[in-house]
Design brief:
The protein has strands at 2-7, 10-15, 18-27, 36-44, 54-60, 72-76, 81-89, 99-104. The protein has 108 residues and is mainly beta. It has one domain (2-104). An 8-stranded antiparallel β-barrel has the order 1-2-3-8-5-6-7-4. The radius of gyration is 13 Å and the shape is globular.
């Protein structure tokens, strides 16, 4: 299990005692957006950090309307799963998120 901290646009993942940076985007969100949205969560089935980037599709549920409400359950093609808790100021995400794209950031 790894710990995830993400704001749509950038984030970090703590995996095996090392912190990695990544970029993220959410796709297919229906309804309203927030003025500021960030998220925290847990990552499961991650055996190699190389399996973390990629496209994640919704497994079940979705983000709910309201500050601090709802979770996203997403999985990528390598079996890595994330349980994401969005936090928003202003309007929160509504139901209908269909995916998240993750790309690692080269720190060179």
């Amino acid at each position: 299990m790894a710990i995830l901290d993400v704001g749509w646009g950038h984030g970090t993942i703590d995996f095996n005692g090392q912190v990695y940076k990544f970029k993220s985007t959410a796709a297919g969100i229906g309804g309203w957006g927030g003025q500021k949205i960030s998220a925290t969560g847990k990552v499961y089935n991650l055996k190699d950090i190389a399996d973390f980037p990629g496209a994640y599709g919704e497994v079940r549920g979705g983000a709910a309307v309201g500050k601090g409400a709802g979770y996203w359950y997403v999985r990528n093609g390598k079996g890595v799963e994330m349980v994401i808790k969005p936090h928003a100021e202003g309007l929160a995400l509504s139901l209908g998120a269909s995916g998240i794209s993750v790309e690692m950031v080269d720190e060179k």
